[in-house]
Amino acid sequence: MDKPTIPAHRHLMADYRQTYQRSITDPETFWREAAAGVDWHVPPTRILDDSEAPIFRWFPGAELNTCHNAVDRHVAAGRGDQPALIHDSPVTGVIRSYTYRDLRDEVALFAGALRGLGVARGDRVVIYMAMVPETVIAMLACARLGAVHSVVFGGFGARELAARIDDAQPKVIVATSCGIEGRRVVAYQPMLDAALAAAAHVPDRRVILQRPELPAEPLGERDLTWAEAVAGAEPAECVPVLATDPLYILHTSGTTGRPKGVVRDNGGHAVALRWSMENIFDVRPGEVFWAASDVGWVVGHSYIVYAPLLAGATTVLYEGKPVGTPDAAAFWRVAARHRVVSLFTAPTAVRAIRKEDPEGKHLPGYDLSALRLLFLAGERLDPQTYRWAGELLGVPVIDNWWQTETGWPIAASPRGLQELPTRPGSPSVPMPGYRVRVVDESGNDLPPGEEGAIVIGLPLPPGCLPTLWQDDERYVRSYLSAYQGNYLTGDGGRFDEDGYLYVLGRTDDVINVAGHRLSTGAMEEVLAAHPAVAECAVIGVHDAVKGQAPRAFVVLTAGADGAGLEAELIARVREQIGPVAALRRVDVVAALPKTRSGKILRGRMRGMADGAETPVPSTIEDPAVLEALRPLLG
Ligand code: COA
Ligand code: AMP
Domain containing 565 — which CATH number? Predict the structure, then answer.
C-alpha cells in the first residue's frame, strides 16, 4: 500500500537533508555505519584510503565475499525457502522460481565447474548471455570464486564483443546458444565466433548454455555445454576477497570507439547497493522487486542481480519486451502475478506502452495493489511520460539519474528515508556521498537556474568506479582532469532554488537510444572504414519513443558510387556494433559543416534537427554547408 503523501513543503525535507549532510561532513562515520549492513570476513577498520588521490579506495584491508552476502547469508539466516529469483519469460512461455537455497546450490555448482576449468580469484570471465537464470548464476559464481565477470549485452555485435574480450582477457567465456527477441531467435555462436576471430586474446574455454529454441552446433574444440560443465562438478565455497578487489568490469560507451572498462569493487559496491535498496528504493527483505532492464546494462547488474539479493528481496528476471510479447499489458501482468512492490524501468519502455495503449485500457484487468512505486532511469524522463505513468498507475513516479560509472543513483527521491515530493523533469536531489555541483567552464559553481556541466566533488561515494580496468591513466584523463578535484559526469544541467537537480543531456558525443548508451564515435569508425566514405558524422536526434535515434551523414570519396550504400552501411553497423545501435538512416551529403580548425559541428547539426538552434559559431568554415543540411535535418 502507498504511504500517505506528504505535501510539498521544504521543512519536510529534514530527514533527507540531515542524512545527506552527515554523509558529506562525516563520510567515514556515515559509510562505517552503512557497512554494518554487510557480512565481513575481516571487518573494515579503515574506511577511506586517500593515499593515491585522486584515486580513492573504500574499506581498504577489509575482506568479504559478495556472493555470500547476496545468497548464502540469507540461507543461513533462515530465508532458504524464500524465492530469490523469478524468471518470467513470455518469449519461451516459462515462469520459474528459485529459492535462496536453490540459488545457492546452483551457484555453488557452477562456481565449482568454473574452478574445474581453471578459473580462480582475479581471473576474468566474459558472460555473453540472454535473460535466463543461468546468467545470474554465472555472475554470482564468479563473485563466489573472487573471479571478475565482464557481462556483454546480447544486443552488441562482433566488434564490440571483441573489444571487450581483448580488454578483459577472460580465461573462460560463458554464452547462451541464442537470445530471443520477440519472435526472432538470435544465434549467439556466429557472433561469438566472429568476435573471437577478430580478437587478439584467446580464452581457454567456452561454456555454452544450449537453449532448446536454437542449440549451438557444432561445438568447437574449446567448447563444452553448461550441462557438461556442471556434470561431476563439486560445489565451491565462497572465497573471501579484499573489499578493494574487482567484482566486475562493465564496459560502457565513451566518446571514442574504444569502450571504457568500468571497474566495480566488492566492498563499496555491497555497502552502497544494500544502503540504496532500503533507503532509496524502499524495499524490505521478502518483498518482490522488478527491474525491467537487461543484465547487460548497469541497471541490470545493480538492480536485477546484486541489490535486491543483497537486501534479501525477491528479484524478477523478465525475458521479454514492454510491448509485443505479446502486448502492451506485459508489464502489468508480470507485476500483478508476482506481487511486485517496486517496478524499475526506462522511460522508453513506458513510452512504448503508451504508444500502443494510450488510454491504459489493458490495466484494469490486473491487480496491482502491491505496487507502491515506479522508478524510471537510463535517460531523461520527459514530464509527459512522468505524468502519464503516475496517473495511470496511481503510484509515485521516481526519476533517478545515474550512470554505469556510479552503479547506483546520483540523484533520486530517497523513498525509504523520506517521501520527498517529486517534480516533473527532475530526478530530485543528490544522494548521500555525492557532492553534486553545476559549474561553468572555469569550474565555478553556478547559481540556481543556470545551466552548466554537472560534476561530482571527489571522493565519489562507495560503489562508484574506483578506476577503469587496468587504465588509471585513462580514468584520470577521461573523468578527473577537466575540473580538478571533481568527477566529470558528461551530463549538463541545473539546480533549482530548492536544490532539485535537472539533468538536460550529455555534453559529449554519447547518445542514448531506447535507454541504451551508445557511442557515435564507434558508429563513425565503422562507417569511415568503408572505402566509399571519405568523411562522416553520426548524431543523435530526437525520437518520440526511443528518446534519441542515431542519424549518419557521409561524404563520398572521389569517384565513389553512392548506390546501395545506405543499406550497406546500415548492415555494417548492425553487424559490427550490433542491432542495438538501431541506425536506420544514412544520408549522403556534399560536405559536412566544420569549424576552420576542422572540427565537425555535430552539436549544431543536432540542434537543427531538434529545433533547438544555437547561434552559428563565428569559427564556422562555410555557413552554406550547414544550411545545405537544413532540408535533411529540419
Ligand atoms: N539481443 C539481441 N538483439 C537485441 C537485444 C538483445 N539483447 N536487445 C535489443 N536487440 C535488438 C532488437 O531486437 C532490435 O532489433 P531490430 O532492429 O531487428 O528490430 C534492435 O536491437 C534495436 O533494439 P531497441 O532499440 O531496444 O528497439 P526495439 O524496437 O526492439 O524495442 C523498446 C523498443 C522501447 C521496447 C525497447 O528498447 C525497450 O524495452 N527499452 C527499455 C530499455 C531498457 O531496459 N534499458 C536499460 C536501461 S534501464
Ligand atoms: P548508462 O551509463 O548507460 O546508465 O547511461 C548514463 C547516462 O544516461 C547518463 O549520463 C545520462 O546522460 C543518462 N541518464 C540516465 N538516467 C537519467 C535520468 N534520470 N535523467 C536524465 N538522464 C539520464
Answer: 3.30.300.30
In ligand 1, the atom with minimum distance to the C-alpha of 351 is 34
Sign (positive/negative) of CA torsion 397, 402, 403, 404?
A: negative
Q: Indicate whether 552 pLDDT > 90.
A: yes
Rounded distance, CA 73 to CA 157, Å?
37
* Residue 501 and residue 520 in one domain: no
- Provide the domain count of the chain: 2
Number of Cβ within 10 Å of residue 5's Cβ equals 9
297 Cβ inside 6 Å of ligand 1:
yes
Task: For residues 92 and 88, give the distance between their C-alpha atoms in angstroms, rounded to a whole number.
Answer: 9
Nearest CA to ligand 2 atom 4: 403
pTM of the model: 0.95
Question: Which pLDDT score is estimated for 14?
Answer: 61
Kindly state the average pLDDT of the residues 593-617. Answer: 89
Same domain, 520 and 576: yes
pLDDT score of 509: 86
Least trusted range by pLDDT, from 121-125, 285-289, 380-384, 604-608: 604-608
535: in domain: yes
- Among 151, 428, 451, 491, the mutation site with the greatest number of ligand 2 atoms within 8 A of its Cβ is 491
My answer on whether 521 and 608 are in the same domain is: yes
3-state DSSP call for residue 178? strand
Mean pLDDT, residues 235-254 taken together:
97
d(CA 185, CA 337): 26
Ligand 2 midpoint to CA 407 (Å): 11
Instruction: Supply 567's cell numbers.
Output: 543499406
Alpha helices in 235-318 (DSSP H): 267-279, 298-300, 307-310
Query: Ligand 1: which of 131, 178, 181, 302 to mutate, judged by most atoms within 8 Å of the beta carbon?
Result: 181
Domain boundary among 506, 541, 569: 506
User: What range does the domain containing 441 cover?
Assistant: 1-37+425-506
Per DSSP, the three-state class of 26 is coil
Residues 521, 619, single domain; the answer is: yes
